[in-house]
Amino acid sequence: MIHWFPGHMAKQFKLLKEKQKLFDLFIIILDSRIPLSSFNNEIYKIANNKPILFIFNKADKTDKSKLAVFVEEYAKRGKVIVTNLKSNSAYTKINSALNACFLDLKKRNEAKGKLTPSLKCVVVGVPNVGKSTFINLMAKSKVAKVGAIAGITRSEQWINCKNYLLLDTPGLLMPKIESDEVGAKLAIVGSIRQEALNQNELIQEIYKLVSQYYPGRLNNIGLEPAFDEIDILNNINEYAKKNNLLLKNGVLDTNKAINMLISYFKNMDNVIYDSQLNEEENA
To answer: Which residue numbers delimit the G domain (predicted)?
Structure first.
C-alpha cells in the first residue's frame, strides 16, 4: 500500500549523517498515538551516542493508560517529555530540560577550560508530528511553517533560542515501511499524504486497527468490528445507507462514505494504535 519516500527525505538522511558531529543533542518528536510507528529507527544510528530528548507530542489525543510502557522504554535511551505542544505548560517543561542540557555541557567544558557556545540541537521526526509547532513554541514566534500536510518543511533552518540553537529539518519517514498496518497508522495521524495512497486499501487497514483496539468507536456510529474485506465493505455500505450517501442514480456513494469514515477515525481522541507486542518485535 505504501511506496512513498520523497527524494528530499533521502537527501536529508545523508545530510544528517554528514553533520552528526555538529550536534550536541537530538530532539526526537513522536506522536503519542503511535509512539513506535512514528519513530524512525535510523535516527538511533545517526545519533550514535549523542544525548537524546524524546518529546511525546499530542498527548491530549492518546490513551494515557497505555502510554506509560512506551515512555519507560524510550527513557532507557534518553530523557522523555510527554506533552501537547499547544498546551500552556509545554514551553516551561521543554525549556527547563534544554537549559539543563546546556548547563551540563557548560559544566563539562569548564572542567576542561573550554568556553561553551549555545547547545546545538537537531529536531527530527516523521512528517506532521509537530516539529514546526515545536520550533515556533521554543522561538516564541512563527519562524517555521506549520500545516496538517505531510512534508511541508523542505529546508533546514537554525533558530537561536539563547542557550540553545534548534535546527529544523524536513519530516523523515523510514526508507521502507514494513507493513500496510504501519502505513495505515502513519496515514491516520497525517504523516503520509492521503492522496498518495489507495483509499480502498487504506480504509481496510484503518478499519481493522479500530476494530482491534477501539471497537466501541465503531458501535458509536452504528457499525460493527470487522477484519475481513467483505465484512468491512458491508459495514461501509451500511454507513452510506445510514447517512443517506447516494449518487444521482441512487447507488450508494461508497467513496464519500470511505472519506467520511477516514475523517472520523483521524479525529478520534484518547487512542493509541501501537501495542506492547509490536514493541517486543521491534526491540
So the answer is: 121-183
